[in-house]
Design a protein that fits this description.
The complex is a heterodimer of chains A (192) and B (155). Chain A is built from seven helices and five strands; from the N terminus they run E-E-H-E-H-H-H-H-H-E-E-H. With 192 residues, chain A is α+β, with helices and mostly antiparallel strands. In chain A, helix 1 crosses helix 7, helix 2 runs antiparallel to helix 3 and helix 2 runs parallel beside helix 4. The N and C termini of chain A lie far apart (50 Å). Chain B has 155 residues and is of the alpha/beta class. Chain B has one domain: Glutaredoxin, CATH 3.40.30.10. In chain B, the strands form two sheets. A five-stranded mixed β-sheet of chain B has the order 5-4-3-6-7, with helices on both faces. A two-stranded antiparallel ribbon of chain B has the order 1-2. The chains are: A alpha+beta (192), B alpha/beta (155). Chains A and B meet through helix 6 of A and helix 2, strand 7 and helix 6 of B.
Chain lengths: 192, 155
């Protein structure tokens, strides 16, 4: 038997300007989430992550990456595209929030309604939805995600190391503790 | 009995697998260069679902690396078929049903509680085990190490 020696997994796809990122670029802690809009655990984790982020607004950067599990979730790919296309008009995070909070009601009609409410240029949004470059970007994000040890959703990485609580909705206390630990480790000499 | 190790001769077997019909390992390794055998405890149990769905998502990558993926559990072929249909799994899910778990036994991954371990093997065209990994039962082993192993076997 091959021993399950070192079970740590590291992000192989560094955060770059292709990513959707919120928070200061020089934040001591970067939290990366791989998620699927149709995944209930991702939906339930969304407010938890938002609350933890709100407490560390200046010191944690948040990166959202698409990981639609299309064989299981027929609406996930469309929703991922809808948010990416909104991102091309500078409204990624608003669309991301709306789709995460929609409890799975994320079909074409709902996405279109959100796009209208966000005052997107609908014709442009539709053209972007069909742009092969967007689906290729999602495919590549998933491909590299799998290489980094994303086995399902949501999967989080804190400063590049996989956060090992990934088969259930993220628990607030644990995530908060892990973020605080990373903050402490990143700042041996306190700045404040 | 411990799981077969790298370098061991892979026992040949033929099993039924829902829509896939019958599957014989020695024939499959000739068609693709490698076969990934993914043993899992039971159809429809949560972690297996996630593991098989993950393999489904990146099936193309396995194909590009010359590997055919098959799942194996002690479920009946009807359960496997229902599992495959409900989860959109298109690769074969094989029924190691009668005598129960005989293939899992040959690979050293049958548990005393009546189900297979969550184990992964890569078998090459010479019917040699090239990769062997037994995961914790409740843990999705993922695909990163499998893909890395397959990459190392190219050329």
């Amino acid at each position: 038997m091959t021993p399950a020696a070192d079970d740590k997994h590291f992000l192989k796809d560094p955060v770059s300007d292709r990513d959707w990122a919120r928070g200061p670029a020089d934040a001591p802690v970067t939290l990366v989430e791989y998620a699927d809009f149709q995944c209930p655990d991702c939906q339930h984790s969304h407010p938890v992550i938002e609350r933890v982020l709100a407490d560390h607004r200046d010191r944690v950067r948040f990166v959202f990456r698409q990981f639609p599990i299309v064989s299981l979730h027929p609406l996930a790919q469309g929703a991922a595209l809808a948010s990416e296309a909104a991102g091309r008009q500078g409204r990624f995070w608003e669309m991301q929030r709306r789709l995460m909070e929609a409890e799975g009601r994320i079909g074409e009609a709902e996405a279109l309604r959100h796009a209208s409410e966000l005052h997107l240029d609908i014709e442009q949004w539709r053209r972007d939805l069909a742009d092969p470059a967007l689906s290729e970007h999602i495919r590549e994000t998933k491909r590299l995600g799998v290489r980094s040890g994303v086995n399902g959703t949501p999967t989080l990485f804190i400063n590049g190391v996989r956060y090992e609580e990934q088969t259930e909705p993220v628990r607030e206390q644990e995530l908060r503790a892990a973020i605080e630990e990373a903050l402490a480790a990143a700042q041996p000499a306190a700045r404040e | 009995m411990a799981a077969l190790e790298v370098g061991a001769k892979a026992p040949d077997f033929a099993l039924e697998g829902g829509v896939a019909g019958s599957f014989r390992l020695s024939e499959a390794v000739k068609r693709s260069r490698f076969v990934v055998l993914a043993f899992y405890p039971l159809a429809f149990s949560p972690v297996c679902t996630e593991e098989m769905s993950l393999f489904q998502e990146i099936l193309e990558e396995f194909t590009e690396l010359g590997a055919q993926v098959v799942g194996i559990s002690v479920d009946s072929k009807y359960a496997q078929q229902a599992f495959a249909e409900s989860k959109g799994i298109t690769f074969p899910l094989l029924a190691d049903f009668h005598p129960k778990g005989v293939v899992a036994q040959q690979y050293g991954v049958m548990r005393e509680d009546g189900v297979a371990e969550r184990a992964l093997f890569i078998v090459d065209a010479q019917m040699v085990v090239r990769y062997s990994f037994v995961s914790e039962l409740r843990k999705n082993p993922g695909a990163d190490r499998l893909l890395e192993a397959l990459e190392g076997m190219q050329g």
